[in-house]
Amino acid sequence: MKKQYQVYGMGNALVDFEIETTTEELASLNIEKGVMTLIEADRQQALLEAFQGKHHSRACGGSAANTIIGAQSLGAKCFYSCKVADDETGHFYRDDLISHGVSTNLTEESLETGDTGKCLVMITDDADRTMNTFLGITGNIDYSQINQEALLNSEYLYIEGYLSSSPTALGAAVKARKFADENQVKTAFSLSDPNMVKFCREGLDAIIGEGVDILFCNLDEATMYSDTNNLEEATQKLSKIAKTLIVTLGAEGALIANGESIIRVAGNQVKAVDTNGAGDLFAGSFLYAISNGYSLEKAGQLASFASAQLVTQFGPRLTNSGVDKVKAFAADLSKG
Question: Please, what is the Cα angle at 123 between 120 and 129, to 5 degrees?
Fold first, then answer.
């Protein structure tokens, strides 16, 4: 029987503030480039003041939210569980999420007193993204935010690795993954960021448990998690904990391994201006494709194409014309 949702996501709810900056400015502000760093509210406010007058855009975000919205934009039916506060930023987040057609646990009654999480996404002229995140109330996400009925009626549960940085979020992610396993809901997981592998390895291990159906990671995360500098060796090790492994390789495309074969997905040559959200959209596009009957190879091709379109623009969301272009590409793939 066809399920109501193709992908059920859980992750941090962060309002993203995207800022254009330079490598030199990051260094002057003592910001580690290219990774996600957790910071306190006062540090984030100081950075916002330092960047005053720079280009800013605001959107509901968080890694898994970007993935879910990406899948929804291509035609998947998705649900997203998260936690925001009863403040202006939290209401903005909820309204923005719903405006994309995503079902959610967030209701007016569910919003609590506190501060909604925010993420400064700093884009340098090499198209790299650096994130400084104040978790706020999203760091307290727990299993009460999970809608078990919706999860039971989903093909996939998708969890972001960033949840490993908070004890309550980690506990919720582990419990949700176990519930999915017990009820034949397939599981997909992203390592999310090299700093999660570096500082939250035990949490990542706990979420993965005895293994997941799909594991997403980039090359740095794959080699760090596998304690090797070799992609082939990392692939062998990670394939022991994932039925399907996807390693994204930036402009070089991606590698997909499923225990039987290794598929190389070619990259798409474009001029990148902003890589923020590219990995998230890759995961969302892949999950959309695989839950709609595409082969692993074609799902990878679609995901690679979609993320390549995203990096040509600023922001973690495809424009309407970008979505149309990806949908056209997906239609052509389905004919082949």
Answer: 80
